[in-house]
Design a protein that fits this description.
429 residues, mainly beta, twelve-stranded mixed beta sheet, 2 helices, globular
């Protein structure tokens, strides 16, 4: 009897145990969150001379993160791609203590999530530092002058492949013609070119230098200087201020914003004794690629410009002043309208306090680039940086101007250079 009870008890225990296993709640492992991935990376090649911060906002204006550049190498900002907008806005803060507290802010918009940029330049040897330099002595005669404007009316440029060179020497005017006795330095290995714009808007060049630079140049402007292969003429409005710079590049040379063979370099009214209308753009067939920079401030209250890396320009057409209306004018809430199509815009604010002669001086500027947008919202600025830079007065920035980029294009092989055409509009309340 006891055995029967014990057997039944054992069966009941086994059944109960089996039931408890079947009815126990199912065990779930916690769902793992996706690993954060870099949504922006900056490759720092050289350290800035100032204190430099990177601030990132979402396209909607939400503040994401900010970091200081402190070492060479890559700085990455991490987050979940599911929670970050497809485009972000990158703001740089450049702080300098120079005769006061100076703050430069610059914002780039619609940067693709996951983008990588480069800051600074790698230290590379100066290829020209070991090259031999020579001094060229020049005697140039018969440069037409206007006797009413003094002895130095001509715009004179000497250039080699590196840049425009300074000229030393003297000149004298005889019977309406200028004679120059000058010298300048050049790298022996590079060709040299002299260009002269005389007082009557004749633009010519000379390039028949002795290869080793041992012989002086003696040239007559009327007979030895040659016309450019191509001229583009632009009739300029009266009383306008303008600048023109054209440089040619040999096949082996990379584009640069300063170097190259300088063919034209005119700033008016820096040299008002030279007649420069129509403005002449001179190009030489020996170069296949050029840098052309032109900017003009017009009496109607706007400026126009073009920066072109590539083929020679065949014409410059100055557009009329567009109509623009600014609806909101703070960096945190901005909106404007214009009656012209544009590819991108830049908007500029600034303020200052104190005197530059005293230590209490402060200056803050903010340039914001937008693509084809006409409005911007930024929710906030890092409180830590507001505290760190108490003289960075973002609340009282005064809106200054808008630049409309009619088009712009990256220069192949150089992330720092862009070709573009633009109209600058001062802000009118």
């Amino acid at each position: 009897m006891k055995s029967f009870i014990s057997l039944n008890l054992l069966i009941l225990i086994l059944l109960a145990t089996g039931c408890s296993k079947e009815q126990s709640p199912e065990q779930f492992e916690p769902e793992s969150l996706p690993d954060p991935v870099p949504y922006y990376t900056l490759d720092v090649k050289s350290l800035p001379v100032s204190e430099y911060w990177i601030i990132i906002h979402e396209e909607t204006g939400k503040l994401l993160d900010y970091k200081k550049i402190e070492s060479i190498g890559k700085i990455s900002f991490y987050g979940s791609l599911d929670t970050i907008s497809e485009n972000i806005r990158i703001t740089t803060l450049d702080y300098r203590h120079e005769s006061g507290d100076i703050h430069y802010l610059n914002t780039k918009s619609l940067i693709k999530r996951g983008a990588e940029d480069v800051f600074g330049f790698e230290e590379v040897p100066n290829e020209n530092s070991t090259l031999e330099r020579v001094t060229i002595d020049c005697n140039i005669t018969n440069i037409p002058v206007n006797n009413n404007t003094g002895a130095w009316p001509a715009n004179i440029i000497f250039t080699d492949a590196t840049q425009k060179s300074g000229i030393r020497g003297s000149g004298r005017s005889i019977n309406g013609y200028l004679e120059l006795n000058v010298d300048f330095d050049k790298y022996k290995v590079y060709d040299g070119i002299i260009t002269i714009l005389d007082a009557y808007n004749n633009l010519k060049y000379y390039d028949e230098f002795n290869a080793d630079g041992t012989y002086p140049v003696k040239a007559d402007f009327l007979t030895d200087f040659k016309n450019f292969d191509h001229y583009v003429e632009l009739v300029l409005p009266r009383n306008s201020f303008y600048l023109l710079n054209i440089a040619g590049f040999d096949e082996w040379q990379a584009f640069h914003d300063r170097y190259g063979y300088c063919l034209n370099d005119v700033i008016k009214p820096l040299n008002p004794s030279v007649t420069t209308s129509p403005l002449k753009l001179g190009y030489l067939d020996r170069f296949e690629r050029y840098r052309t920079i032109f900017n003009i401030s017009l009496n109607e209250g706007y400026n126009y410009g073009i920066v072109n890396y590539g083929n020679k320009l065949t014409e410059i057409v100055i557009p009329s002043k567009p109509n623009a209306k600014w609806l909101e004018t703070t960096p945190f809430n901005f909106e404007f309208e214009a009656n012209v199509e544009f590819a991108a815009t830049q908007h500029y604010w600034k303020n200052s306090a104190g005197s530059q002669l005293n230590a209490n001086y402060s200056f803050t500027s903010w340039a914001i680039d937008l693509d084809d947008e006409n409005k911007l919202t930024l929710e906030d600025f890092p409180k830590e940086l507001k505290t760190r830079f108490p003289k960075m007065d973002l609340d009282n920035l005064e809106f200054q101007s808008t630049v409309l980029y009619l088009w712009r294009q990256q220069v192949p092989g150089n992330s720092l250079l862009q070709s573009h055409e633009y109209i600058g509009l001062p802000y009118n309340e």
